[in-house]
Design goal:
It is a single chain. A hairpin with a 5-residue loop joins β3 and β4. α2 crosses α7, α2 (32-41) runs antiparallel to α8 (193-203) and α7 (173-187) crosses α8. With 206 residues, the protein is of the alpha+beta class. The chain has a 3-stranded antiparallel sheet with strand order 3-4-5, covered by helices on one side. It has 8 helices and 7 strands.
Amino acid sequence: MSVLSATLSAFALAAITTAGPASAAPPGIPSASTAASRLAALTVAAESHASTYNRDLFPHWITITGACDTREQVLKRDGSNVVTNSSCAATSGRWHSPYDGATWTAASDVDIDHMVPLAEAWASGAWNWSTSRRQSFANDLNGPQLWAVTDNVNQSKGDQDPAQWKPPVTSFRCTYARAWIQVKYTWGLTVDSAEKSALNSMLGSC
């Protein structure tokens, strides 16, 4: 191989490994029309039992396969060029946070957000679930419940619903509403009136 060919090959490899941020998303996000019909089907009720919420009632980051727990599975699923060590911890990779549009190359800068926060789920009906069902909810990889996002944005969101907090990237709010509705619909959780109004408004941007 000539020096020029080798240089071009190296450049091509670099271009591949430094490609744009990952744009992976959790599975199961419905269309806007489907989300609207599912929102209409949700029971509207005031939240309750909030004072009895305890995060420990939702066992999370359980082992999924081998040495990998739920957080590590999401980091691998939603990142690009993710490298893990023997303990399944991500040692390198790239993660794009759709909430704020930031891209990170250190897993420590990324939180795994519960689309419907655990405290919100509790007050929307999960207070009446078994611990086993709450564990399944907190580690749900089958729907759009778990998202890799910027840590301080996740902390800013906290336990707030869409009437209280929306993603800073306005173009993502349609997707956010569709995902939120799907989680509540799948798990049979209620919505309060302000939350439903906010979700309808967000769907209007789709």
